[in-house]
């Protein structure tokens, strides 16, 4: 959330306000951005799957129209969330990041996971409900650990085959049932590079709406082992000097913050601001 944006469960029966439209192609945008007058948007020929009231932006109610498919709207185009993360202002990115997670959840929870019947939208909390099962499904958040492993002036970075060419990043992975955050971190580092760590320190967290990760960021010191890369997951992993770093992840990512923070401390530079 930000000073301009707060989340809320709003009843779609009320009229007016602002709205965003999200399809599998991304968010609808025109020259003014992704937030449209809602009444105008609802007059367009959109393939609406469902509508959710998601919060207030500058005091105005905001709704999400989750669409089955992207249709042509004159003067508009479709833009993925990643582009807003890379280039958009942080207030808009917060609104759209939240809208994307609610849209993903709404799309994937139309039917009860227990009995398979259609679920209904609860008006007063963010949940889908199955009456026969008395079961509520809330938006999914997936805790993921992300860690910068360091050894004096060196930092351990790796490449996944999914990354942009040349970019190296910190190690990350999803928590499994039964694990603490620290257990997960130790396991992920072992699995991905076969290295042991010590002095694990929590740094901060970040919502990562691709599609529903909650990144918990840590710093850890190297404790032993030689790098052995996990087949398929890790394309390359090595120690880099803080004086000679490869291309790094996007400025808004906690991965980049963990790297910038350590490098700044090591070189005695100004501490970077936490990404918003
Ligand atoms: N904000 C940031 O700075 C960064 C965020 N990330 C995010 O962290 C997350 C984890 O990173 P990876 O190294 O790719 O994960 P990972 O090392 O756990 O490997 C990904 C694999 O985990 C499995 N998986 C996918 N979704 C899952 C879920 N919800 N729960 C459990 N397992 C799941 C799949 O087999 C997938 O191939 C991803 O969402 C990624 O986008 C990763 C690096 C930087
Ligand atoms: Mg990983
Ligand atoms: Zn059910």
Largest sheet: 7 strands, mixed
Structural class: alpha+beta
What is the chain-wise order of helices and strands?
EEEEHEEEHHEEEEEEHEEEH
Q: Hey, roughly how much beta strand do the residues contain? A: 35-45%
The ligands bound in this entry are:
1,4-dihydronicotinamide adenine dinucleotide, magnesium ion, zinc ion
Rg from Cα: 21 Å
CATH class of the largest domain: Alpha Beta
Which residue ranges are poorly predicted, with pLDDT under 50 across at least 5 consecutive positions? none
Query: How many beta-strand elements?
Result: 16
User: In the CATH hierarchy, what is the architecture of the largest domain at level 2?
Assistant: Alpha-Beta Complex
Please state the average pLDDT score. 97
| CATH topology call of the largest domain | Nucleoside Triphosphate Pyrophosphohydrolase
Question: Mind telling me the CATH superfamily name of the largest domain?
Answer: Nucleoside Triphosphate Pyrophosphohydrolase
> How many distinct domains?
2
Instruction: List the total number of helices.
Output: 5
Work out the oligomeric state of the chains in this entry: single chain
Tell the overall outline: globular
Binding site for substrate: 82, 125, 138, 206-213, 255
Cofactor: Zn(2+); Mg(2+); Mn(2+)
Binding site for a divalent metal cation 3: 188, 192, 233
Protein name: NAD-capped RNA hydrolase NudC
């Amino acid at each position: 959330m930000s000073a301009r944006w707060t989340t809320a469960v709003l009843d779609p029966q009320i009229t007016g306000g602002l709205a965003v439209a999200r399809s599998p192609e991304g968010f609808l945008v025109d020259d003014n951005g992704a937030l449209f007058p809602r009444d105008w948007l609802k007059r367009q020929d959109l393939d609406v799957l469902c509508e959710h009231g998601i919060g207030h932006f500058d005091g105005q109610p905001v709704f999400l129209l989750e669409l089955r498919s992207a249709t042509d709207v004159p003067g508009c185009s479709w833009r993925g969330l990643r582009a807003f993360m890379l280039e958009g202002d942080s207030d808009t990115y917060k609104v759209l990041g939240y809208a994307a997670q609610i849209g993903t959840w709404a799309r994937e929870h139309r039917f009860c996971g227990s009995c398979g019947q259609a679920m209904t939208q609860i008006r007063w909390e963010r949940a889908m409900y199955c009456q026969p099962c008395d079961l509520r499904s809330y938006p999914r958040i997936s805790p993921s650990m992300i860690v910068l492993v360091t050894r004096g002036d060196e930092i351990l970075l790796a490449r996944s085959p999914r990354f942009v060419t040349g970019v190296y990043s910190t190690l990350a992975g999803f928590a499994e049932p039964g694990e603490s955050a620290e257990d997960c971190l130790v396991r992920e580092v072992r699995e991905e590079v076969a290295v042991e760590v010590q002095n694990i320190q929590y740094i901060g967290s970040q919502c990562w709406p691709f599609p529903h990760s909650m990144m918990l960021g840590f710093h850890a010191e190297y404790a032993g082992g030689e790098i052995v890369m996990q087949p398929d997951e890790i394309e390359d992993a090595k120690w880099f000097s803080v004086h000679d770093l490869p291309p790094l992840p996007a400025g808004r990512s906690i991965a980049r913050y963990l790297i910038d923070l350590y490098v700044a401390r090591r070189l005695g530079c100004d501490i970077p601001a936490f990404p918003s």
